[in-house]
Specification:
The complex is a heterodimer.
Chain A (H helix, E strand, L loop, with lengths): L3 H29 L7 H23 L3 H27 L3 H21 L33 H18 L1 H11 L1 H6 L5 H28 L10 H11 L4 H25 L4 H24 L9
Chain B lengths: L15 E10 L2 E11 L4 E6 L5 H8 L7 E6 L2 E3 L4 H6 L2 E4 L11 H6 L8 H15 L14 H14 L4 E5 L7 H16 L3 E6 L2 H7 L2 E6 L2 E7 L5 H9 L22 E10 L8 E9 L3 E6 L5 H7 L7 E5 L4 E4 L3 H5 L6 H6 L12 H14 L16 H14 L4 E5 L7 H16 L3 E5 L3 H7 L2 E6 L2 E5 L3 H13 L1
Parallel strand pairs in B: 3-8, 3-9, 6-7, 7-8, 13-17, 13-18, 15-16, 16-17
Antiparallel strand pairs in B: 1-2, 1-4, 4-5, 9-10, 11-12, 11-14, 18-19
Classes of the chains: A mainly alpha, B alpha/beta.
């Protein structure tokens, strides 16, 4: 049988992987449709903040059922946060690469404001909220470890996401819009604006869900620096998975393991944890290089006369 | 190079020679063995229909495209142009249809773009003034490009070429964007440049401009040189015939293939007093009335994309601005640029088939059924492929087109709109497409198609119309009549 230390390490890896998988899926969905959502980090934080607020306010009223409401609420809040970027793009042609990354900072400071203001714990000593009552926490998958039900939600979400992309008309539209918007409009008669807006909403909801699950399964309270950049690592997770939801599951666990081992290595062997950041960045560059070499090998299409 | 006219031999070294140039894009033969001589100190007009290869040929002369075969010779020296900067060094300047200026910068700054060394605004401004006085292309050196009109921006483009000491200036459809007065002025300036010893290639489709302002005229058709003469040896009529591919004195083609009569009187497509914006063609159409009946094939002739917006309205891909438009719910559309508008090149064939009307689909994708449909389209339309699992980019142009047409006809639409459906295809594929269009009409489909090939229009259509000068007019179904109608629009 597996000894306890290994079990703890592996379950820690999966715990760490959970937000990476969900946020990675958010990025993968957006990128598949050609929507460059760099704002998973902000959407995740807004989802976390909303879930905390709902859970703290409604647990006495709803008991265990509150989890359902706060997870949904967190996803909805993430979607609304992404909708800001969607509307900026639709109305004023603001590039989503710019707006989503800017909204990340807004979200970070909004969380900072919340934990020092309206949501701060009653003693006003620590910049954080009260801890969630036990009945508002996600159940554990393996007792004695930290592995919570959020990981199962991540797996189910990935499989569902894959099925939607491959087997539904909405998913097909999303892929067509990403691959060739002109053909989507002319041959498919697809409403591109509507598809893009839906993609922003889905992507934001997934990232928001990641944040809500992190609150309910790991931190149990909202505070600053809640996310060590999950939303940015998620971009690497999605790219390494070639934007395939099923592969996101694997690359998410890979990056989760990498980051968990980083702290273990620092603790036990004195290897700086930043080395893992270097490794992650190197992997992203490698993947991008391979992709661009591949795409360059495709024969160039005819230059049409103007 | 005295093959064409004896007086060529008396000239000094030609400014620019293109010798036996060939160029292919995929399986489209853009240029086949084209030779062209630009005599020093002359204006050479290059005429041809849309897609005849004029711009491609001149992009080769400017180093933007490298030819598959052939040679560029400047003043008797063969040169190898690897990029536009090579061409500029060799003394060639090109003014593109789409201007390449920085709107946020001033005229003087734009003039010096790409030059090396220290930038001195006063000196640059001085150059603008001097060059302007020399040539008549006057501009305020300090005004921002974004505040200039189209004509002024074009003057700046020409000045920029001259500032880099261009001895040979290539103008790509320079008058297309200008008002008549501005065009006349520009062409006068062009004569002045030539009188100062420079040489000019004028790409145009306006016959009258060519006759009036050019010394020599060449005509390209389907990537081949079909005419090369001095301007005083040709007439509007002979140029038009060369452009449209008719032999002089050729009798109008006999009606050897009878076109089926419309099988019913109920109009499938109906436009009444419609106004159509010029989003693509640059010129809106007014008061368009058109009816297409079941089984009818209506051929549209137009120059330079003039029918593009009309076709998209008929195909339900764009809305008319005004008027009554009655269309069946299901219209097939075969756009001219199939790579861009009809296919997703890195999707597989069956996914491309699923593209049709994917905007209206909901629920699950019935992939097995779509695969079966794809197999049957591939078989019925003779699409040469190893399987329906390959990407669309793996097909040749002709097979891509067959696939697109097959897809658009698969659910027996009440109407089909096709835009230059045989463009760039070989003879076999062309025949196949034509046969399929006829078969669809025989099944009762109302077909509207645009073609830049008059022969094909007359052969396939049961009725022809011409789009010109912002209006749609019916015209007799003969190459003569259509050619004449188009010609009127180019010289109007």
């Amino acid at each position: 049988m597996i000894d306890l230390a290994t079990l703890t390490l592996v379950s820690d890896m999966l715990v760490r992987a959970t937000p990476l998988i969900l946020a990675g899926l958010a990025v993968a969905f957006a990128f598949q449709a050609g929507v460059l959502n760099i704002g998973a980090e902000g959407q995740l934080l807004i989802g976390a903040a909303s879930a905390t607020a709902i859970a703290l306010a409604a647990t006495p009223l709803l008991g265990r059922a509150v989890i359902l409401f706060s997870l949904t609420g967190g996803a909805a809040a993430g979607a609304l946060w992404a909708l800001i970027a969607a509307e900026l793009r639709r109305r004023y042609q603001v590039l989503e690469v710019i707006s989503t990354i800017m909204l990340n900072f807004v979200a970070i400071f909004l969380v900072g404001f919340l934990v020092r203001g309206p949501l701060q714990e009653p003693t006003h000593v620590y910049p954080q909220t009260l801890e969630l009552p036990p009945q508002a926490r996600l159940p554990l998958l393996i007792p004695g470890t930290r592995l919570h039900a959020g990981f199962a939600i991540a797996i189910i979400t990935c499989i569902t996401g894959w099925w939607i992309l491959r087997h539904t008309a909405a998913g097909f539209r999303l892929r067509v819009v990403g691959a060739n918007p002109d053909a989507a409009r002319m041959a498919g008669r697809i409403n591109i604006e509507k598809t893009a807006r839906n993609v922003f909403l889905i992507s934001g909801a997934l990232a928001g869900l990641a944040g809500a699950i992190e609150i309910h399964g790991v931190t149990f309270a909202l505070y600053e620096n809640l996310s060590p950049g999950y939303g940015y690592t998620a971009i690497a997770v999605a790219l390494l998975a070639a934007l395939n939801p099923l592969l996101v599951l694997i690359t998410g666990i890979f990056f989760g393991a990498l980051e968990t081992l980083a702290s273990a290595l620092q603790r036990d062997a004195g290897i700086p944890a930043t080395l893992v950041s270097v490794l992650e960045a190197a992997i992203i560059l490698l993947v991008l290089a391979v992709q661009s070499i591949r795409s360059r090998r495709v024969p160039r299409t005819a230059v049409s006369e103007t | 190079m005295s093959d064409f006219s004896p007086d060529f031999a008396l000239e000094s070294a030609p400014a620019l020679e293109l010798r036996n140039i060939s160029k292919r894009f995929g399986d489209l033969h853009a240029l086949t063995n084209v030779s062209l001589t630009l005599r020093a100190g002359t204006v050479h007009a290059l005429l041809g229909e849309n897609g005849a290869g004029k711009t491609t040929l001149m992009r080769i002369a400017f180093g933007m495209i490298s030819p598959d075969a052939g040679q560029v010779v400047i003043a008797n020296n063969p040169v190898k142009l690897r990029s536009p900067s090579d061409a500029i060094k060799a003394g060639i300047g090109m003014v593109h249809q789409h201007f390449m200026l920085v709107p946020a910068m001033s005229v003087a700054e734009n003039l010096e773009l790409g030059s090396t060394g220290r930038f001195d605004i006063a000196r640059a401004a001085q150059r603008v003034t001097t060059l302007g006085e020399e040539t008549g292309l006057k501009l305020d050196p300090y005004s921002k490009v974004s505040s200039l009109g189209v004509a002024a921006q074009q003057r700046l483009e020409i000045l920029r070429a001259l500032a880099r000491n261009a001895r040979i200036v290539i103008l790509d459809e320079p008058t297309a964007v200008l008002a008549p007065v501005e065009s006349r002025y520009l062409l006068t300036v062009m004569r002045k440049l030539v009188s100062q010893g420079r040489s000019v290639v004028l790409i145009t489709h306006k016959l009258r401009d060519a006759l009036q302002y050019a010394d020599d005229i060449s005509v390209l058709r389907h990537g081949r040189l079909v005419l090369h003469e001095t301007a005083n040896h040709v007439t509007e009529d002979s140029l038009a015939r060369a452009m449209l591919g008719q032999q002089p004195g050729e009798p109008p083609p006999s009606d050897s293939n009878p076109v089926p009569a419309p099988s019913s009187d109920i109009p499938v497509i109906q436009l009444r007093n419609a106004t159509i914006s010029g989003a693509l063609s640059g010129r809106s159409l007014h008061n368009v009335s058109l009816e297409v009946r079941r089984g009818e094939i209506v051929g549209i002739a137009a120059l330079n994309n003039a029918a593009a917006d009309l076709l998209r309205v008929l195909a339900h891909r764009a809305d008319a601005q005004d008027g009554i438009v009655t269309l069946p719910p299901n219209v097939g559309f075969v756009p001219e640029d199939r790579q861009r508008d009809a296919l997703v090149s890195d999707f597989r064939l069956f996914e491309n088939i699923a593209l049709r009307d994917s905007g209206a689909r909901s629920g699950q994708m019935p992939w097995p059924a779509i695969r079966t449909r794809t197999e049957s389209i591939v078989k019925q339309f003779d699409v040469r492929t190893t399987s329906s699992d390959v990407n669309a980019s793996a097909l040749s142009g002709g097979n891509q087109q067959k696939l697109v047409l097959g897809r658009e006809l698969d659910d027996d639409p009440a109407a089909l709109v096709a835009e230059n459906p045989t463009r760039g295809l070989d003879v076999l594929a062309t025949e196949n497409i034509k046969r399929q269009l006829r078969a669809a009409a025989a099944r009762g489909c109302a077909i509207v198609f645009y073609s830049s090939d008059l022969e094909e229009l007359v052969e396939l259509a049961s009725r022809t119309i011409v789009v010109r000068d912002g209006a749609v007019v019916p015209v007799d179904r003969s190459e003569e009549a259509i050619g004449f109608a188009l010609l009127q629009s180019t010289t109007a």
